[in-house]
Amino acid sequence: MTQSTFYAGVDGGGTKCRAELYDAAGNLLGAGISGSANIARSGSVARESILASVQHAIAEAELPPETLANTAVYAGLAGANVPSAAGALRNWQHPFQQFHFTSDLHTALFGAHGGANGAVLVVGTGSCAAALVDGTLVQYGGHGFLLGDKGSGAWLGKQAVTHTLEALDGLQEFGGLAKAVCQHYQCHSAVALVDKLNHASPGVFGELCPLILQLAHQGDATALALVEEGSRYLSAIARQAMGKSGGDLVITGGVAGALAPWLDPEVQAAVREHQFGPEWGAILLLRAAQEAK
């Protein structure tokens, strides 16, 4: 196998995809960001996002576009644990010199603990926890927007919309949270809200997360109840992962920092700083795969 001149580590989540480009010595040359890369939701969108993020990283490094063909890419992707989605991606006629992928959990864990045993709690558009035990990943939660992802930004947003619809129907008090949801989406009837969100992506629901957290901090009872319910679940899966790995816990994801104060005290006490980000975790996994050959 031809040795690559450049290496790209990719962290592809439900809202954004970020690539970091490195040279053979491990020097960071550039980074690029694009859209959603959840392969279980849309393989075509994910492929476009992976390609765009690497292209943006190459451009930031001020390298020519043809660098793409001399770059080995290792991507950690949301939805990669779904067999049908992973199978479809393996058939991708990509433009890179090499392309490997695993779940975004795997790269996050590998980077966070530098390949050592440990646990991670990911809270962004989706949510999950995982343990790395002697190189083996064990996942908790992370079942996707339709079936799980409790405590995530998208879950909080969806719960807030459900509450708002019930308030608009007169079944709940039309209080601060319902008013904020209607204002955010500029929808002031149940019909208008359903029409706008009936086919919305998780990221659209996740837009509400900052509003919900703000209202919870201000003491809004409904928002606070949602945040506390989600945080109890996140604490539970974090404890599962910590118990399995026997190691420290790293929390990551776009919503993780904001929700951390609501996690159970023993979970908060176990949190440590990550060693590396998921993009470098992907590079470490790529190096391990190449060394194994």
UniProtKB/TrEMBL annotation:
<dbReference type="InterPro" id="IPR043129">
    <property type="entry name" value="ATPase_NBD"/>
</dbReference>
<feature type="domain" description="ATPase BadF/BadG/BcrA/BcrD type">
    <location>
        <begin position="9"/>
        <end position="284"/>
    </location>
</feature>
<dbReference type="InterPro" id="IPR002731">
    <property type="entry name" value="ATPase_BadF"/>
</dbReference>
<dbReference type="InterPro" id="IPR052519">
    <property type="entry name" value="Euk-type_GlcNAc_Kinase"/>
</dbReference>
<protein>
    <recommendedName>
        <fullName>ATPase BadF/BadG/BcrA/BcrD type domain-containing protein</fullName>
    </recommendedName>
</protein>
<dbReference type="Pfam" id="PF01869">
    <property type="entry name" value="BcrAD_BadFG"/>
</dbReference>
